């Protein structure tokens, strides 16, 4: 086999500043180091991510993350074959910070520069972590993304559907706020739901009456607000049990939509690739046990293998960017100093754009 490639990855498209080193070949690579610095505390008082604060924090942290990733892997710039950086989609200030950092390093060290689509990074993660061969169906489900992608190659993605408004993680976060739970909302709702009755509150299952793979989660937020207020008015406040029942009912509604739409996405994907046998999930919401179990059941019913990357590489990180860069580099692709930061960058330019955007920007 040829000499392995060693790629530095840089990620700063949302609220995580990350750097990582990945070494290997297409289909068989190792994560040598992966460091992530989050910004939850910086945005905590604002009810969402403040783009200017995010961009400034990225600019301050990027070189520190790069240094940490190199020292953890016990490598220097001399060991690198290329530098890969998220060039979009995402918050423009953050993406620009990363691209400028990568350009500076590439120019100073005479290394090839590779711009990577953040969504491609997520979509390629199961191949980095488990060697999953193409083609496979991917459900990307996080605080900023929600889409079904048929992944046939590192440059060939077909988007089969996605959210037309909020991403599920965003809906979990908003619902948690409405129920007085802490952030991030997903794990808080999951914990509260443990003692709750998912059938007590009748919440809608949006867009299940439509035969496609598109989803909507913003209405659920309004529904949970109404249910909360009705219960509180009845009794003059919410009991712990009410809170648990609301959380469980909300989680069940999101899970039912994701699971049923996944079933439809498999059917749709098999029309394009009849031999399709693999399904993977990525993104923070993939941590949810009820959702994961539901997806596993769909895969078992339909005869597909199910894989989920380890959580640390499901959420935003730079190892996925380094690996996507490794595939580009191995294919002989390269960018130059004109590489632009792109706030919007759909992976599949053939599919029509989806409506709306989430707090972190649906981006495609
Ligand atoms: O992938 P991620 O770390 O960041 C981006 O959004 O890009 O995902 C974070 C999201 C948050 O909205 C969080 O509430 C959600 O993933 N999340 C969960 C769980 N753990 C994290 N949602 C549901 N259940 C969970 N256990
Ligand atoms: Zn992401």
Structure explained in plain terms:
The protein has 364 residues and is α/β, with parallel strands linked by helices. The chain contains 11 helices and 10 strands. It has a 5-stranded mixed beta sheet with strand order 3-2-1-4-5, with helices on both faces. A hairpin with a 4-residue loop joins strand 6 and strand 7 (146-153). Helix 5 (168-178) crosses helix 6 (185-193) and helix 5 runs antiparallel to helix 8. The longest helix has 33 residues, at 240-272. The radius of gyration is 21 Å and the shape is globular. Residues 357-364 have low confidence and may be disordered. 5'-O-[(R)-(carboxyoxy)(hydroxy)phosphoryl]adenosine (KG4) is lined by residues 14, 142-144, 169-170, 172-173, 184-187, 190, 283-285, 287-288, 315-316, 360.
Could you give the distance between the termini? 37 Å
- The CATH class of the largest domain: Alpha Beta
Cα radius of gyration in angstroms: 21 Å
What's the order of the H and E elements?
EEEHHEHEHEEEHHHHEHEHH
- Biggest sheet record: 5 strands, mixed
Helix vs. strand class = alpha/beta
Unreliable spans are: 357-364
Named CATH architecture of the largest domain = 2-Layer Sandwich
The percent of residues in helical segments reads: 40-55%
Total beta-strand segments:
10
């Amino acid at each position: 086999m040829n000499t392995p490639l060693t790629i530095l990855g840089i990620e700063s498209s949302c609220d995580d500043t990350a750097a990582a080193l990945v070494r290997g070949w297409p289909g068989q690579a190792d994560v040598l180091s992966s460091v992530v610095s989050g910004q939850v505390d910086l945005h905590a008082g604002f009810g969402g991510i403040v783009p200017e604060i995010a961009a400034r924090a990225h600019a301050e942290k990027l070189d520190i993350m790069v240094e940490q990733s190199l020292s953890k892997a016990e490598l220097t710039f001399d060991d690198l074959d290329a530098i890969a950086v998220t060039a979009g989609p995402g918050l423009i200030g953050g993406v620009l910070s990363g691209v400028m950092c990568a350009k500076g390093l590439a120019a100073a060290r005479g290394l090839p520069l590779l711009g990577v689509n953040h969504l491609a990074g997520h979509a390629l993660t199961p191949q980095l972590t488990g060697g999953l061969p193409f083609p496979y169906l991917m459900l990307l489900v996080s605080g900023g993304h929600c889409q079904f992608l048929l992944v046939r190659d590192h440059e060939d993605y077909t988007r089969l559907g996605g959210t037309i408004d909020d991403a599920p993680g965003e809906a979990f976060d908003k619902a948690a706020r409405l129920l007085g739970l802490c952030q991030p909302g997903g794990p808080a709702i999951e914990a509260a739901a443990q003692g709750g009755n998912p059938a007590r509150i009748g919440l809608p299952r949006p867009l299940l009456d439509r035969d496609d793979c598109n989803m909507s989660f913003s209405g659920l937020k309004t529904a949970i607000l109404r249910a909360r207020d009705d219960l509180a008015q009845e009794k003059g406040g919410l009991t712990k049990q009410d809170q648990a029942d609301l959380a469980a009912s909300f989680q069940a509604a999101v899970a039912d939509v994701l699971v049923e739409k996944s079933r439809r996405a498999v059917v749709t994907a098999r029309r394009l690739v009849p031999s399709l046998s693999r399904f993977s999930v990525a993104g923070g919401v993939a941590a949810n046990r009820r959702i994961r179990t539901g997806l596993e059941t769909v895969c078992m019913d339909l005869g597909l293998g199910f894989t989920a990357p380890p959580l640390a590489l499901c959420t935003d990180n730079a190892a996925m960017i380094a690996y996507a860069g490794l595939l580009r580099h191995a294919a002989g692709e390269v960018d130059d100093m004109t590489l632009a930061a792109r706030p919007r960058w759909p992976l599949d330019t053939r599919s029509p754009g989806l409506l709306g955007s989430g707090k972190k920007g649906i981006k495609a």
